Amino acid sequence: MSCIAVSGSRASRPELDKMLEHLRSGDEVVVWKLDRLGRNTQSLLALIDDLEHRGVHFHSVTEGISTTGSMGRAMLTVMSAFAQLERDQLVERTRAGMAAAAEHGRKAGRREVTAGHAKVKRARDLKAQGLTPADIGKIIGASRATVYRYLRMEIKEAS
Question: 0.70 exceeded by the pTM?
């Protein structure tokens, strides 16, 4: 059995397409959770129908659902509806949170770090004292890659 990472929300899912091309009658598709396989109930059930017509079984580990029996198919329909509901609620809550933040003047995403940021200045000072980027990272609580980015940031903005 091979594991293939698949996102249930992306429009293009090349890894899923590759897996589907290689499936043969008697194979079994195993997913961790139903919402990893389908974008919505309709697409998930259509995919399961396709698998069944090809003689491929389906198993969802978290929900404990398997299409090898008639009860499994009924449970699949119910659980896929709940998975879609859960996803829809998550999207609604995310949008509501972003809207509330925007009303208070905050925008989504990370805050921009500029050459004037305290950690950038501290990294520059520590580098001037001869410390390595790894040591600077430990002191300021950042990864070595971030330290390098901070040090380059200073060079770019000074030019």
Answer: no
